[in-house]
Amino acid sequence: MIGCVIRFHQIRASRIDSPKSYDRIGHFFKNQMERAYFQIPAFLEKGEKNITPDTVVTACMLNQLLLFQYAQQEPDGEPEMEDSLTAELIWKKEGTDEDYKNIDEEKLDYDKDALHIESSVLEEMERENSLHNTDLEEAAGEENRLAKENNAADVAQEAGFQEAVYPAYSYDWSEQWSYEDLVSNFYAVDSSTLLQEEYLDLDVLLHQDLSIDKEADGPQILIYHTHSREAFADSVPGDPSTTIVGAGDKLAALLTEKYGFQVMHHTGEYDAVREDAYANSLPEIEKILEENPTIEVVIDLHRDAVSGDRKLVMDLQGRPTARFMFFNGLSYIRKSGSIEYLENPYIQDNLAFSFQAQVAANEYYPGIARKVYLKAYRYNLHLKPKSMLIELGAQNNTVEEIMNACDPLAHILAIVLNDML
After folding, report:
1. d(CA 184, CA 216)
2. pLDDT digits over 282-301, tens only?
3. Which end of the chain is more exposed for a tag (fewer CB within 10 A), N or C?
4. Can you tell me the distance from the alpha carbon of 407 to that of 135, in angstroms, rounded to the nearest whole number?
5. Burial, 7: exposed, middle or buried (Cβ in 10 Å; 0-12, 13-18, 19+)?
């Protein structure tokens, strides 16, 4: 309407006072008013066939909105993939994005009970620890018993880690577990992604056979570090044994010497430029897998980064022990869907692996594992069906806490890979 008024004054300014001029003004106003306010009647008067309410509304919108016209145009050929710049940005984001540090911790509420029970994690931890302490006390002589009364922590450290023989808690899988139940009890889903219901079949997650052939003539498990430079609160500069690489050494030794697996620990460095780490590590890990076809399990061992002064530690059998987290990438962005160039045909297998590990952790060592964390990208978890990314502690844990955590972590992996869940 404003356009009509402007045009009227433009015509008046031309000082043309003939009747024909006013006829033109009247005709102009008629056309403008019809286009602006009477499009549907005018459209119907044209006598076009196959008119439906949808076609009427669409025609009206096309007349008024150029953007709508553009959106309605048929594309020439196949729709374009995201451009190469966008893809590169995605890869760069993936390179630095598995850390927990930018997450709303209160919203995810990691410190609360991750078990499907009413009692708190603390109570379950105390129960589990008391069972171990009782076993240790019965096995100890009078001298050790007196020493324990004087210094329980020293005795616990001297006795070393004792793997849990029985679960401190057992899930009731006979009850109905809805999608919401499974997500709320086992997962923390980052806002960048979405866990599709098709992946959350309890029968598949829980009963998929993840056992491996321990008699294979060659390594069965590969441990490596996309971010090998990740260190801890008291790591010694220049000493990799006090970094995540040292934790990988201990985990590999436990899985080999205590649980009978053949493990390869690869210590290559890929994070000189952190955002390129996943791209840098991929061809090297693919080469290792090609040269070692007996490898069934690929574990990328990391150290998390948390905000503030929060510390991921618990008391387990009198030993300060770092908590850890199993991590999955879904190759799926909530706003735009699947990331086609980060395809992972093993997402369901990856999820079964982390789910069974989470269940074992919750049952045997309640409180040791934070909820399984899900993010948008791939993180090279497409290399094998049994691929896993583990965040072991965080930057403010001590080396002692990290090394202590390798004991329950190795036991949990052995439970799953021996199909003992």
Report:
1. 38
2. 999 999 999 999 999 999 99
3. N
4. 18
5. middle
Write down the pLDDT at residue 69: 44
293-298-300 Cα angle (round to 5): 145
pLDDT computed for residue 308 by the predictor: 79
CA atoms in the 13 A half-sphere facing the CB of 142: 0
Task: Judge contact between 406 and 345, C-beta under 8 A.
Answer: no
Contacts of 331 (CB under 8 A, 6+ apart): 338, 339, 342, 343, 344, 347, 376, 377, 378, 382
- What's the pTM value of the predicted model, to 2 decimals? 0.70
d(C-alpha 221, C-alpha 199), whole Å:
25
Rounded CA separation 129/126 (Å): 5
- The CA distances from residue 340 to 74, 140, 162, 182, in Å, are 23, 59, 45, 27
Which range, 20-29, 33-42, 302-311, has the best average confidence (pLDDT)?
302-311
Environment class of 410 (CB within 10 Å of its CB; exposed 0-12, middle 13-18, buried 19+): buried
Is residue 5 exposed (0-12), middle (13-18) or buried (19+ Cβ within 10 Å)? exposed
pLDDT at site 144: 55
Tokens of 287: 């080469």
Spatial distance between the Cα atoms of 227 and 389, rounded to a whole number of angstroms: 11
Pick from 323, 319, 291, 327: nearest CA to 394? 323
What percentage of residues in the chain have a pLDDT greater than 90? 59
How many helices and strands (H and E) does the chain possess?
A: 16, 11
14: pLDDT strictly greater than 70:
no
